[in-house]
Structures are given as structure tokens and as C-alpha cells.
Amino acid sequence: MVTSKVSSTLPAEKLSIDEQIVPFKGCSRLRTYNPKKPKKWGYKIFVLSDIDGLIYNFKIYTGSINPVPGQPDVKASGNIVLDLLQPIPRGVWHKVYFDNWFNSPLLHVALWKQGFCSLGTVRLNRVSGCSMPSDTQMKKSGRGTSVIQVAEMDDVELRVVKWHDNRGVTLLSNFAALEPQNTVKRWDSKRKKRIDIVCPSIVMIYNKFMGGVDLLDSLLPLYRISLRSKKWYHKLLWHFMDMLLIQAWLLYIRDFDLTDAPRKAKLPLLMFKLEVANCLLQKEKSIGTKRGRPSVDVEELYKEKAKRGPTVKIPAKPIRTDKYDHFPDFGEKKGRCKNPG
Question: What does the pLDDT look like over 188-208, one tens digit per residue?
Fold first, then answer.
């Protein structure tokens, strides 16, 4: 149900693929360990998203990765990319970005033949016949040094670029290259100031469009459902609930920016979640109309009261008028009635 919902969204041109960890330290065969992640123990999920964090597909890692039916076998990590891209239309030339765990020349060739441009960091031991200078040699030439090698594989042109910043970074692409080069600001510890160094186009493109899944990962822990449970599947269920709420909020932000509404009217993520919770509380409840003379609107009286001094927020109108019995809250601290007047 979740995958059908997220894949129904019209995909953006720039797409990124990365892995996501759902924190979990309980007993489960699906649990993995990654020492490079902030949360080292948990379920691994491979995610396809755009640069804003909107998800279009995902796969839970279960320990075995098989070739996709009807697709070429490009090894385990490359098969994940082809599997995630199944809902994306072919021949539209979407641009796909991924890191060195997924990348290989076979994957770039397969993507190009299906109408995808692709770019990612790469491990040199996966690119046979490609020799690049070492980091020590490039360090002598100074920061900003870059080297490119171009080759054809199965009638597809591939470019390997190594750029030296503080250390060497190697990228492989079927559409991007060195030009046009730009400059970036970096801190020079010897001069004690920021300097300009040359940066290839392929590096600028990768840094700009690769962070979609990382953005989603930064939003998930903000207001994560933190219920404790011994059931291994509860953690995944709550993760998908959080993820869908964030997807709804991102779509709301995207549509809100297309309107002329004032920026202060835009709901932050926390208030958006509270509004969704309030709406779910009112589901299938009928709010009837009162007979007799119309009473004074409490909302207007509350606004007038708030102008005179500090006030405590009253419950939302749908909850106050849902015709259910609401018991008062008792406390030790004295206070005035919330009803103005």
C-alpha cells in the first residue's frame, strides 16, 4: 500500500538513490550493522527520492538481492538501482545519482540504454583498465587538480574523473564531465583564510543533487514515533507512518509555494502533524448545529482576551464542538476559566 502511494507521485527530473537505517536493536534476522551510520543497528531500506526528499520507491533489505526480471544482471548493488527505477518511465532521460556502493560501469551502460542519465562516486577497483594518479601525486599539484579518462563500453561513452580537494574523489558518469569548471571556497590552514579552488562540473552536479535521502533522514528523527515494543515489525510500521506524514508535508509545502498565501501561514512539520492528528480524531464524527439563539463566538472572545494579556490556548473548535463529553483537567495550580468572560 505504501509503495503504491509513493510511486503514484509524478517523478522529478533529478533522482537520488541511497540507503536508510531504521533504528532497531531488538532480535530480528533483518537487522543489519553499519559502523559508518549515526544509528548503527537497524533495518536497511534502499530509497529512491528527489532532491526535496519526496520518495518514489523503496525496498527493504532482506539479505538476498536477485536480478530484476526482464533486466540485465549488473551485480547485486546495481540490481537494486534497476529495481528501484521500475516505476519511473523510460526514455525521458531522468538523471539518477548514487554513491560508490551502487556504482559500476555495467550499471551506467544498462541505464543509458533504458533512457537514464547517471552519475555517482565510484571505487576504482570496479573500473577495470582505468589507472588514476594517487592522492600523494595529486597533492603535489595542489588542491583543485583533476584528471579525466574517457572510454566506450558497449557503444556508451563513460567518463571517469578524479578531483583532489583534501583528498581524492573519483566519479563515474555517462553524461557529465570536467567542463564547465567552476570555483569553490575552501579553508586554507596555512594562510588562515578561505581561498578559491577549481572544481569540475561533475563534482558540482553530484554535490547539488545527491542529498535527497539525507534530507529525508534529517526530517524523520525530529518528531519520530517513540513507542517501545518487543514486536520487530512495529518499528517498521511506525517508520512508514512517519515517512508518509513527511511525504504529505513535503507535498503541502510544494503546493503552498505555488500560491500567493503569506509565508507565516505555512505550517511547520510539527503543526502539520498535529493538524493531521486532529482530523483523524474527528473522523466519522458528526458536528451538529445548536438550536435557539446564536451564541457569542468563543474564538472571537478568545482573540480579544489574548490582546489584553497572556492566555492559555483553548482546544480546537472541532474538538470542543464534537458533542462528546469532555471532563475537566484538575491541577494544583489556580487559574481562570478558559472560556472568556
Answer: 888 888 888 889 999 999 999
